[in-house]
């Protein structure tokens, strides 16, 4: 899971400290492997086995040759840099050599889970870049939700889950309050606090996943539509 | 990891976009509308336990100029206490420099979403005219009157909304905004010095034309034409004069904007005196029957 520091992991990818570099790489993998894999599967139409091999090989190669450290924040966002690097890798890779290089650092890549997500209905319109952007947003939000779950009171998280994650729940504040033995005001206040915390966590994740203030602000604008 | 559907992602984005109102007496719940200058949210006033609408300056516009414009809008609304103008409750500044104000939450429909009979629409229109005339009396020109900026509450309220581009009469700044199709020529051409009550008269004429059915009586068409005349001197001099003409039409009286021919005068007279005409005709028919019976 994410390190607790709010330092940019993108900057840490070029660290001289092996351990710090390793942790930073794990964070990048945790945040990006699924968008990369689903991008290959859905936007580029690759078969499951191909997409699995290419995703793992790409990540393994990035770790081995440190190519992510070459990122220049002045040229593009890290998200765009990574996708372009991935596109180039996929175009050049000789399939026969793929199976010798597998792995994504210490992060477990659950491709079955990713396939299950792809099977569920979701928007596949727009360009491949649009798709990658949407999956990146989904990944950031999913991370923020997990971090919120880890740090929150279970009842408060259950209320947040019922209201903001479960589309099928149509309970009113009063009904939710009755379900959890809380007053309506406690439900609304708790939900407001959880939403504020969720926003703060999303901003933290973006701070970690970007290399400069400009890139951070651009990603916040892109993801949330707000200025920070 | 939690699977987030497209809808869940969109919802979380909306939740994360909500401005941070912690430390205030308001708790934002959901976005209601997004306009040129800001975003309007439904919120709870925790102190008074009532639902309100909170307008927050759009983050991409959070410049000093935009803050000043929105502050001017808040002051304009605050100075217009009238049943036809949405009341303002509170104003403040977020830590990120965005201005906000809280106002009455109007539950109902926008005028452009309303389908009703012509007389009912005209009565709503007269209520709008009353509110606009009040603003003119206070020296304020709305400058963006259109059906989308009028709310009809569930309990008969008619409220003129969105005073974001309203201006004091005689103001001579260069910023002239509005909505094409409802903007008078002087407004569209940015002639700030010429903007005045007759600019709103023009918009009201366009609004009247927009809310009425495709086919409507000639006197009403003449009222719309006079209100929407290109030259300011050819329009109604005041909103009240426009409203008076609409009232006259509703009462079956001649309107100042339209010269009737003899047939139309007779038709209107017959329409107004339908009961008397019916009695007279019934009397004449009976007389005729009696005469024919006697002769037979």
What key phrases describe this protein's structure?
A: 228 residues; disordered N terminus; B: 296 residues; alpha+beta; 5-stranded antiparallel beta sheet; 41% helix
Helix-strand layout with pairing:
The complex is a heterodimer of chains A (228) and B (296).
Chain A: H1 9-12, H2 18-43, H3 48-65, H4 78-92, H5 95-98, H6 111-119, H7 128-151, H8 154-165, H9 173-180, H10 184-208, H11 213-224
Helix pairs in contact in A: 2-3, 2-6, 2-7, 7-10, 8-10, 9-10
Chain B: H1 6-17, E1 26-34, E2 38-45, E3 50-57, H2 64-78, E4 88-93, E5 99-104, E6 108-110, H3 118-137, E7 140-141, E8 150-153, E9 158-160, E10 167-168, H4 185-188, H5 197-211, H6 218-227, H7 239-250, H8 262-272, H9 274-295
Antiparallel strand pairs in B: 1-2, 2-3, 3-5, 4-5, 6-8, 7-10, 8-9
Structure write-up:
The complex is a heterodimer of chains A (228) and B (296). Chain A has 228 residues and is an all-alpha fold. Chain A has eleven helices and no strands. The two termini of chain A are 25 Å apart. Chain B folds into three domains: 97 residues, Phosphorylase Kinase, domain 1 (2-Layer Sandwich); 143 residues, Transferase(Phosphotransferase), domain 1 (Orthogonal Bundle); 34 residues. Chain B is an alpha+beta fold and 296 residues long. In chain B, strands 1-2-3-5-4 form a five-stranded antiparallel sheet, covered by helices on one side. A three-stranded antiparallel sheet of chain B has the order 6-8-9. Chain B contains nine helices and ten strands. The mean pLDDT of chain B is 87. In chain B, strand 1 and strand 2 form a beta hairpin. Chain B is elongated and about 100 Å long. The chains are: A mainly alpha (228), B alpha+beta (296). Chains A and B meet through helix 6, helix 7 and helix 10 of A and helix 1 and strand 1 of B.
Total E-strand runs of chain B:
10
Return Rg of chain B in Å: 25 Å
The unreliable regions of chain B are none
The secondary-structure element order of chain B is: HEEEHEEEHEEEEHHHHHH
Q: Structural class given helices, strands, pairing of chain A?
A: mainly alpha
User: How far do the termini of chain B sit from each other?
Assistant: 102 Å
The CATH architecture of the largest domain in chain B would be Orthogonal Bundle
CATH topology of the largest domain in chain B: Transferase(Phosphotransferase), domain 1
The CATH superfamily of the largest domain in chain B is Transferase(Phosphotransferase) domain 1
Specify the overall morphology of chain A.
globular
Q: Structural class of chain B, please?
A: alpha+beta
Fraction of residues of chain A in helices? Answer: 55-70%
Shape descriptor of chain B reads elongated
Low-confidence stretches of chain A: 1-5
